[in-house]
Amino acid sequence: MTVTDNGDGTSTITDGTTTVIVSDGAEGPQGPAGVVDPKDLTADDTTIVVTGGAGATLIDASLKVGTESITTTHIQNGTIAPEDIANAGNDQVLVTSSTGVPTWVDQSSLEIEADNGLTKTDNKIQLGGALIKPTTITTGASKHFSSCWFSSANRCRS
């Protein structure tokens, strides 16, 4: 085997059967005149933005995010906005199952009960109903609450 310095940053290596020319790397992989036929690095779609990709590669190449490759662990907390959530039908709410799987369901299918002074009518919960345990209603200084009870004297108290 012989190695010959070509004096231009390359060497020729031959073993008598095969000859190979290699670069010594001093000028970089492009050689002293630059890449003879530079190719572009581009984005395959709009999920990636490539800057400075013109003439950046030895062959044409493109980048794209793989299908189903971005998962929950890649999404920054606090970045999901309401418009990012899948649309549901009218009058549906997002709930989770006992195993934590989110699902859209009709509001009317929710099993909500009202008791102890509350009444449920359709999808509304309002004051008015039998008290089934001792109950205290606390108000702020600027709020007033009146209670009336009806007996032979029909009395109200504020």
Structure notes:
- With 158 residues, the chain is mostly beta strands.
- The protein is built from no helices and eleven strands.
- It has strands at 2-5, 10-14, 19-23, 41-43, 61-63, 92-96, 102-106, 118-121, 124-127, 147-149, 155-157.
- The strands form five sheets. It has a three-stranded antiparallel β-sheet, with no helix packed on it. Strands 4-5 form a two-stranded parallel sheet.
- The radius of gyration is 38 Å and the shape is rod-shaped.
- The mean pLDDT is 80.
Strand-helix topology:
Blueprint: E1 2-5, E2 10-14, E3 19-23, E4 41-43, E5 61-63, E6 92-96, E7 102-106, E8 118-121, E9 124-127, E10 147-149, E11 155-157
Parallel strand pairs: 4-5
Antiparallel strand pairs: 1-2, 2-3, 6-7, 8-9, 10-11
Number of helices: 0
Report the count of strand segments: 11
Task: Give the biggest sheet.
Answer: 3 strands, antiparallel
Elements, N to C (H/E): EEEEEEEEEEE
Strand order in space, largest sheet: 1-2-3
